Amino acid sequence: MKKGNKDPSPKVQISLQDVMRESKVRDNDNVQTLGSLSIPLSRLLSSSQLSLNEWFKLTQSGPDSRIHINTVLRVLWMDESAISSSLLASDQDSLTSKCRASRPKHTSPDPSFATEGVLRIHLLKGQNLVPKDNMMGGMVKGKSDPYITINVGGNTFKSNVIKENLNPLWNEMYEVVLTDLPGQDISLEVLDRDMDMKDDFMGRLKIKLTDIVKAKHIDELFALNDVKHGSVHLALEWLPTVTQPDKLEKVLHYQAKSSYLNKAVPAVALLFIYLDSAHDLPLKKSGKEPKVGAELVLGGTSHKTLVCDRSSSPKWNEAFHFLLKDPWKEELMVKLSHCWDFSLGSVVIPVRELLCQPDLLLDQWLNLEGASPGSQILLRAQLKILCPKVISENYGEHTETPASPTTSVQKTKPEKDLTQKSSELLVPVTVTSPVITLEEIKCEETPDALMVTSEADIRHTTPDPRFATEGVLRIHLLEAKNLIAKDNLMGGIVKGKSDPYVKISVEGTTFQSHVIKENLNPTWNEMYELVVASEPSSEILVQVFDKDIDKDDFLGRVHISLKEIIQTHYCDQWFSLNDVKHGCVHLVLEWVSTVTQPEKLQQALQLQSVHTFQNKALPSVALLFILIERAKALPKEKGGKEPKAGAELFLGVTSYKTKVCDRSTSPQWGEAFHFLLHNPNEDNLIIKIQSRWEEPLGSLVLPARELLSKPELLLDQWQSLNGAGPESQILLRAQLKILASMMDRNVTKPIEKHIEKPIEKHSDKPAENPAGADILMGGRGEERLQSTPATSQEIKPTPRLNELVVSTVRVAVTHPEEKQSPAADDSNKVLPCVSTVEGDREEPITASQSESKDKIEQEHSDKTTEHTVPVKPPTAEEMKEATTSRYSLPQHTNPDPSFGTQGVLRIHLLEAQNLVAMDSLMGGMVKGKSDPYVKISVGGTTLKSHVIKENLNPTWNEMYEMILSVDPNLEVKFELYDKDIDSDDFLGRLKIKLGDIIRFQYHDEWYNLSDVKHGNLHLVLEWVPTVTQPEKFQQVLQMQNSLSYQNKASPSAALLSILIERAKALPLKKSGKEPKAGAELTLGGTSYKTKVCDRTTSPQWHEAFNFLIHDPSKDMLVIKLSSGWDQPMGFLVLPLKELISKPELLLDQWLSLDGALPESQILLRAQLKVLNSKMAALVAMGAGPVLSNKQAATTGQIRLSLSYQKKLTVVVHACRSLVTASKEGLDTYVSLILLPDKNKATKRKTAVKKKDLDPEFNERFEFDLSADEARERVLSVCLKHSVSFMARDKDVIGQVQIDLAQVDFHSGVTKWFDLKENNN
């Protein structure tokens, strides 16, 4: 304002002098200075596109005075003939030097930057520790509960507590980043954990850091100080760092093999960040310069800088470091803000991009996203690989910590002249590179330094080098022979057969064959496939079992090196079973190579059509690898927030989910998946993008056949999303690889049985065992039988699929009554495979043959004991024990009579009316309202509804369920309160006996509230009876879909009762002791725990539990057994759908445990009962509870015609009897939507009828749907009032929803429908 408080009449005067410009605002009347501003021209030169467009604060003026300036600098180019080139070059050099002097190109960190190292501490175990928990006043020594604290470099680590152990095993790992300075110690203390008093001291230890750095690696048992005895085993390693990216894969491979009890994952790299400064940050909304701080986030670790004083170009000069688990996946985010609350921009640096930089170093200016065009940040990022000693030893390499890295010098061509002829067209230059000096704008070469590009610059994915390197292991389980007979008869006097099946475990995946009944030479002919890494470290474990009712008997196992299978590619072989007397299994193992030649597909499909397997498996023909990199421009959530996006991938019955990203419309995943394909010409990949797996954001359908026409069968690009915005896209990499099986190069022949002819005569010459008879991975030596034509025992070898191996197996026929020579007994040798049957039938042996055979065997035993391995038969006591062992434990549970008798009380809290008003106004002179809620108490359980604000007729519409034993005298209590800030006011109570609810079973009634003047409560109380009829499930599940409650509850469909009886043959603890076993049962969000038994491998619990089930076809019960809740002893997963097929929905038997010993089992009883709700029957008939407070009033009628003639046709005729408060009539139109879809294709609306309460429309609409699709839709019809968006009137007059499944499309329907008031 002017001095007289008058508004000024300003004018602006601009002057330019010596690369400075001044702008003065003056009063036109009195030449009164109102303010001034000075802007250096160098600021224009350093800004993006040489322009400024912002508000500036005036000096010599008021505190809020601002001026907005939009200025652009343009260089006036002159003709070369009109000016000396040398003069122009001199001027240009001067201009460039001034610009370059204004900002440094690189950081200048302290010499100590990136010199820290990593100390890795591996706490293994303790030995002979001091006992502190003494008993009987110290007369009897007890044990201790030891744990360890480690202090180093200001960091404290604490181990787990090991209960009652003086020789504890921890196996925990810790890492800390330290500077190698003298005087630093590692302090370790061992303490005994006590519950009620101070933890007892058990010893201490100090180790100098310099000793560890000097030795690099120390693995030693350290004696504890200040105690009588005790020691701790530690492995301490100072990790050298290297800047060689080729070491990363070896370190990652080492990391994958490491496993620690504290779940620690060894770091593979160390990232150092030096934050120098920022430039040209945006001003605050008030126009003031910001107080800038930077936050660095990587994974779960974050650091913050100091907050600088007000400046748009702050300087920090601060250094930070991060430990990395996988540089290929992790990203560093640097976020700048004003005082941590107002965002000023950010930059994201994928760590993997540092791996392609010289010396793994980035040092330059980077553009900031979400800031001004010229906003940048200068930082230095140094990546160093942590190389453990084991890597150096295994690969014979030497590593050392390099000196401080130096910034790589960017080589540029000599600067070109910046002159241009006046006749040439001037093209504006947009600077997008992080390096913004003028001389580099014209540089033709791309700098070697890393360019952090925007989404528009990203064209392709950046996959991990391990992407698409997996292969397929194909396992063909053919047959077995000469298995051990486990099902003996007559107390073991007569040998029976076995019911064999096979378990195959590879890389954490287990396949199980079907059971062959009563057969010692079974044929399975089953095939399994698994995608595994090309450099596995595991093996294939094949185990054969005999299926029994109580406990499956062990029939042998064999370990096969997966690495050798990958090297040989194909193996067709008989493998002898280990840990048993005899038996072999025939397997074909193939590592299927992959190619990117589409012409190989037809050959693979032909091979697929030739093979048939008993387990209905179909050989895959291709492997599809998918890398989901990122997305951009995703739509926002309905609430306007940015989505938390996750991607779900479907192909056939296989599905995967990515992680859920933080809120962003441009999420980044960088996750890879794979799918086995059976026909790429028909298979389709579906990718659905959702926000928190709830709200769809778009989808993509990728037919696999499209990849067949791509070079190298590879697609790597942005793909548009359906059901999203036009600019919404996803960046992915899809690599198709054809499986080139070796089976298609060989003649496939049917499996032939081994045929044994009767033995008539045996050669006097003993059989010879040639050297080198062992076959690769077979684990046995095959011996050839020498025979004459007169004494022929013919063994016809099984044709191999590749006809590479043909071998004759020597047959040694034995009988139970034969006694083997004790001198020849050797249990450590493996017997050769024996074939003694034809099919499943044993050959009879005559008496003469038996005599001849006895004689021959005696001679053969005397001469060739070095070649045969007789087996000592079991004693009578052993046979009797083996026969009766399965009957020593009960075969079924022994439940209490009360087991499974519980029921379900379902409480439907609907509404209340005429409640007492407790929130009075004006000292009680004016009555107000109440904020009511309800407390429900049943036994020791209390439930609470949500609060309804300011309402004396509230509607809750909430449902609760609880499992109760039948107790007629149990009271169900309801108490209503008015929610207040200080003390809640009482609004009434109600008590109902459980016996009354059980007698009525279903009761829908208004109840009067007691102890208050007035008030009613509307409840539906139901005691839900249970039945064991699975056909009742459908009705209950329909009720679930029909009802919705405000508290998001869903009615249960069934009640599951579980009795955990006992377990047997549990594994021992790692210490060798028997476990203290407890069982934890989990189903959905509900879990229970049994008691913990005393030490035994066969614990008994006899405890029962109940679960409410919402969908038996999907729910699964998980039972985990552990010792003291910390060491797993096995688990069981029981899908409830298996109970539906059982008689009376009951399962009562022994079940094998996964993750335990082969013989580990648990005995339980599982009883499923369907909740036969009366409400379900009422809902099916269209009845059920009615909310009096929420009954929608009729607001008129609408006449519609519905029919189907190749298309769904809807005719809107007219409306009548419309209810309105308007005296001038209504401007009405009708809106049609086909639910559940709400898009343009399913929406229609009529024209607007002005000022008419009985409007006639007579408009016809068609929807292009099939009849089946139409029957799945609901037609929503809304009569609306066309009002201005500023008006207060409601736009919806009434609505009706028509279920098209109930409409007879063949004859059509024309009728008046009631319009209901919109309660939403």
Question: Strand pairing plus helix content: what structural class?
Answer: mainly beta
Beta percentage is 35-45%
Q: What is the residue-mean pLDDT, rounded to a whole number?
A: 78
Largest sheet: 8 strands, antiparallel
Radius of gyration: 41 Å
Q: Give the helix level as a range of percent.
A: under 10%
Query: Count of helical segments?
Result: 15
From the N-terminal CA to the C-terminal CA, the straight-line distance is 53 Å
Low-confidence stretches: 18-29, 78-101, 395-453, 745-887
The best one-word shape is globular
Please provide the count of β strands: 71
Structural overview:
- Residues 851-866 have a biased composition (Basic and acidic residues).
- GO terms for molecular function: calcium ion binding; calcium-dependent phospholipid binding; phosphatidylcholine binding; phosphatidylethanolamine binding; phosphatidylinositol binding.
- It comes from Astyanax mexicanus (Blind cave fish).
- With 1320 residues, the protein is mainly β.
- It contains 15 helices and 71 strands.
- The strands form 19 sheets. Strands 25, 30, 33, 34, 35, 38, 41 and 42 form an 8-stranded antiparallel β-sheet that branches. Strands 16, 17, 20, 23 and 24 form a 5-stranded antiparallel β-sheet that branches. Strands 55, 56, 59, 62 and 63 form a 5-stranded antiparallel β-sheet that branches.
- Helix 12 (1033-1042) packs across helix 14.
- The longest helix is centred in the first third of the chain and has 18 residues, at 85-102.
- The radius of gyration is 41 Å and the shape is globular.
- The relative contact order is 0.05.
- Residues 18-29, 78-101, 395-453 and 745-887 have low confidence and may be disordered.
